[in-house]
Amino acid sequence: MLTNTTTDQKPTRMQIMPTLLSRSAAYVWTGILVVGFFVLDIFLPLGVAAGVPYAVAVMTSMRTARIRFIAGVTVLTCALTILGFLLSPDGGEPWKVAANRTLAIFVILGAGVFAVYAISVRRRATRQAIMFEQVRRRRIQDANIQLMRSAEARSSFLGQISHELRTPLTSLTTFAHILDGKSETLSRERIQAHSEVIGRSARRLEVLINDLFDASGSETDSFKLNLSTVDLPQIVSDTANEYAHHVRTLDQELEIDIDIPDESKYRAIADSVRMSQVITNLLSNASKYSWPGSTIHAFCGLENDKFIVKVTDQGAGISREDISKVFTPFFRVDAAEVRAVPGAGLGLTIVKSIVELHDGQVYIESEPDRGTTVSFTIPAVLSS
User: Fold this and answer.
1) 335 pLDDT more than 80
2) Considering only CA atoms, which of 262, 261, 243 is closest in space to residue 252?
3) In which band, very low, low, confident or very high, does the pLDDT at 16 lie, cut at 50, 70 and 90?
4) How much is the mean pLDDT over the chain?
5) Cα dihedral angle (269, 271, 277, 280), rounded to 10 degrees?
6) How big is the CA angle at 223 (ends 222 and 229), to the nearest 5 degrees?
7) Radius of gyration (Cα) for the chain, nearest Å?
């Protein structure tokens, strides 16, 4: 697992002291140089010192890394250059004096501008380095979080799959053992009942293995579609009608609403088998998490040159926090009434993968104890 080897520890006193001493010394030496050069300027004949040495004081002030202080020293030394001209002893030719003092002011200003620019560049580089470090740390933290989530998902997956495999396998082995050891003493009705249990367990294993295969294929981009021009409303109607018998065995009702005229020329470029799989998965989810006596509604319509398919149930619903997670492989809502329902948490993952391969989108709306609506859209085209 990636770890963040850098820390946000505060600098120690021993680390801070050299910096403070360096800055304090810069303040002191700047002051000494300014005073010293001013005294030198006013006691030497006019035009000899000329104020140029003040540039050394300005450059020394750079050690403080304080732009305002550097600017202040620059302005002060320019003023002292002029004051030195007024207070220094007479001597020198006037034009040389004026030229030297003007040159001195330009040199001081140049030193000040250079110092301010250098500090600004250094600060900008420091800010960029800090931002880069923050981004690097954030990426490491995100990577750690992602790895932790992957590890948790893997552990959850292994536990869930073990449970899902164990249940039908236990039924298979138990009833196969009964039939093997007591078949001569069992009535035909009991043998048939046990055979049906074995058949259901085998089908449950087959569904689970197929879901695992499809989920694996969607993650490795090996999901292949057999595209053709299909009548999506007819696929929805046929699939829903086939599933209606199973819904009725659970004391539930399935309403089918195809809101598209029979003469409509709109078709979908899709894999009919995969589309039927999507609708079956949505109906299966709606049925599994709905109460006996409730109604499931399947709808297919046309909206803005797109087919829209909705499956609505009156079941347990999903919290707002969990809605964003339901398409994650192996995720299951952590509620007692949901955990009691068999499943590996792959149905909606497969639905999303198939729909997105058809250039479509999947949406989900839900409230706890108010039911759930899962819908998807795929492009519709006019057939000739």
Assistant:
1) no
2) 243
3) very low
4) 79
5) 30
6) 140
7) 40
| 1 falls within a domain | no
- For residue 27, pLDDT over 90 is answered with no
C-alpha to C-alpha distance for 263 and 383, rounded to whole angstroms: 12
CATH number for the domain spanning 197: value is: 1.10.287.130
3-state secondary structure of 300: strand
Structure tokens at 12: 């120690």
Task: Please check whether residues 30 and 137 belong to one and the same domain.
Answer: yes
The enclosing domain of 327 has a CATH number of 3.30.565.10
Query: Edge-to-edge strand order for the sheet containing 381-382?
Result: 228-230, 266-270, 381-382
Residue in 350, 234, 365 with CA at minimum distance from that of residue 311: 365
Q: Which pLDDT score is estimated for 200?
A: 66
Is residue 107 within 8 Å of residue 52, measured between CB atoms? yes
User: Residue 247: helix, strand or coil by DSSP?
Assistant: helix
Question: Are residue 347 and residue 377 in the same domain, yes or no?
Answer: yes
Judgement on whether residues 237 and 370 belong to the same structural domain of the protein: yes
Average confidence (pLDDT) over 72-101: 75
* Spatial separation of the C-alpha atoms in residues 168 and 201, rounded to whole Å: 5
Domain presence at residue 167: yes
Token pair belonging to 7? 């820390």
Asked if residue 149 belongs to a domain, the reply is: no
Q: For 219-226, what is the mean pLDDT?
A: 66
- Distance, in Å, from the CA atom of 292 to the CA atom of 249, rounded to the nearest integer, reads 10
Any idea how long the chain is?
384
Range of the domain at 248: 228-382
Asked whether residue 291 is domain-assigned, the answer is: yes
Alpha carbon distance 178, 72 (integer Å): 99
Long-range contacts of 335-339 (CB under 8 A, 24+ apart): 337/289, 338/289
| Cα angle: 212, vertex 255, 366; to 5 degrees | 60
Residue matched to tokens 């001569």: 184
